[in-house]
Amino acid sequence: MKATKPPLLVRWAFLACALLAVSTAPAQTKIVVTNYGVSANGMPFAIALEKGFFKQQGLNITEIISSAGGGTTMRNMMAAGVPYAEINPGAAIGAIQQGVDLKIIADNVLTVAEFAWFVKPESKIRTIKDLKGAKVGFNNPRSTSAALLQVLLDQAGLRKDDVQMVRTGGFGESLTALDINTIDMTPITEPLWSRYKDKFRAIAVASEVLPPMSNVVGVALASQMKEHDKFIRGVVKARRMAVEFMSANPQEAGDIVARAYNIDPALARAVVKNLVESRTQGIPYWGTGQIHLAGLERTVAAQRSVGAITGEVDLMKIIDTRFLDEDIRALVR
Fold this sequence. Notes:
Blueprint: H1 8-24, E1 30-34, H2 43-50, H3 53-56, E2 63-67, H4 71-80, E3 84-87, H5 89-97, E4 102-109, E5 115-119, E6 135-138, H6 144-155, E7 164-167, H7 171-179, E8 186-189, H8 192-196, E9 201-205, H9 206-209, E10 216-221, H10 229-248, H11 250-261, H12 265-277, E11 279-280, E12 283-284, E13 286-289, H13 293-305, H14 315-318
Parallel strand pairs: 1-2, 1-3, 6-7
Antiparallel strand pairs: 3-10, 4-10, 4-13, 5-8, 5-9, 11-12
Helix pairs in contact: 2-10, 2-11, 6-13, 10-11, 11-12
């Protein structure tokens, strides 16, 4: 029996449905996250992926593009053409001052509690004051590691030219440089801190010596906010859900992080528990996205001290809270 074609109207209906499915499918599948897979700031995104929080927001995130921090994140964001990235505030503000149409839309990591500064066990360096003449590692220009180093030097009464700053490119590279004596001290973040704390010696721990400082922010390109409103809003919401899940389920969250970061599960559970419980002057490490102005102001001051930010910064002009849930849209100090 010869097959007959369906009526023209039916064929058009099927075609319309197919086109609708294509047009409504999420166009964006990537986000950029500083040091994802290496440092603790990006861990909530691993949770959001595995627990399906992105999908619950109607998003099809298939790739999280990592970077070594600083301007590298901005370059990755622009090259990949993605509307959302997680980046340190100094690099974001520096890009804005250079003309990039960027807005800070979420305050994601509110302290620098994951940072410590390591030396080799046999080193004669015991405190930051002993660094005069030493070679000190930092990741990249405009990175958080560079700004925090300047804060530590200021506290110790040292000038920038009292030490030799050595760019390493990343935390893993810094550890290698320290191990082969290319540098005398390096910043380390979780989970590398917990993994190597018995091999090296900490001479400063951020949660003990530094106040709450905005560490990582969510940013979006202003030119893409309208077109990708649902995508950006969904990323921010999914991340908040992940942070709340981590607080309620640190052990399971640790196991998820272990798989995403390819680290030992016991280590991952310890890191997540440590940072979930961490408070710096009452401020948690991972935030829900709500903007904390005092922490941002401290970070701006630190970044200005290393030349990453110049001139005056009007935070109110570069903050846009429209993508936050209404209950956390108000700015706090």
